[in-house]
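Data card: per-record layout.
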Amino acid sequence: MILTGKTVVLGVTGSIAAYKIPNLARMLKKLGCDVQVLMTQNAVQFINPVTFESLTGNKCLIDTFDRNFQYSVEHVALAKKADVVMIAPASGNVIGKIAGGIADDMLTTTVMACPCKKIVSPAMNHNMYHNPIVQDNIRKLKKFGYEIVDPDPGMLANGDIGDGRMPEPEVLFEYILREIAFEKDLAGKKVLVTAGATREPIDPVRFITNHSSGKMGIAVAKAAMLRGAEVTLVAGHCEAQLPPFVRYVPVTSAEDMFNAVTAVSSQQDIIIKAAAVADYTPVSTADKKLKKSDNDMKIELKRTRDILKYLGENKGSGQLLCGFSMETENVLENSAKKLASKNCDMICANSLRTDGAGFGTDTNLITVITRDGAEELPMMTKDQAAHEILDRLVNLK
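The structure for this 397-residue chain is written out next.
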């Protein structure tokens, strides 16, 4: 489990949004994380500490002077142990205390003693949130290295409409994963990933495309982000959820993707072309050169531009280029030819004839091909495969 050996401290303050945090604790615990929960006295009015104790297996700490717990988890020891602290929901009161250096309870005392990354998710009425004093306190926290999770707009607890809502636990979970799930071996690197299927319009109703779901490319983009890279994702039609914390550039046609990729390719350290680009496009969609004969429709087609070939021909010094090869036969031979002809550093090849690999699946069976030879990886999830691909790209350096 990817969070085994990691400790997350969750600080819960007096806000109705506290009811969302048990689910966050559960998600972290499911990945093997040691979850320690600190609550303010006001937070206890919204949720019972027993809820957190049942989910985490740890005593929920509230009173700084409570002696009914082991000395090893007192605030200084816990602060040293924490890999990340998240205060969610963070009330205006607690934000003000921390910004002013006040440590008068277990939560604020522990936060002050923590040298690790601290993430704050404000949750309050939108008028309070936009109060100049609160905004100034948030700016102070940013100045001191705290990361702020912007609240969501919507209906608040009192029925008002505005921003001030704490994001859902799944969003907070992604902030924590980004911080501690993986070593940051790609920190400072710029990574460009393409994903999904392009669509070539025949007329206002129909288009040429393929069966790509975008799952593999999206998994690679997310893995690179989790490992510290600055990621740009150029994506056509996708059936997978887009990853957070990446720059997303949506495209439709192969020409759109070519233009989007070439506009930024020279600035990238690593380029991974996982998109399945339609090989052909109608010669003209403007005048719709369609010929109807009986029940047959004949469409004049031309090849789309070869993005991978362009990237190989224009590869910068020190830049790494990885392509994907989806074959129905002669997988290794055809993929090795592509490695050479497209001037790639790596090709990830698989066969459409293999169960559990290829389009639309959550798993993949990849053979990694470089100039040093071919390595067949075992069947694994696409998330796991994404990290295996990045491991090998990093080692090529």
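Known properties of this structure: The first strand starts at residue 7 and ends at 12. The chain has two domains: 7-180, 190-396.

See the next section for split statistics.
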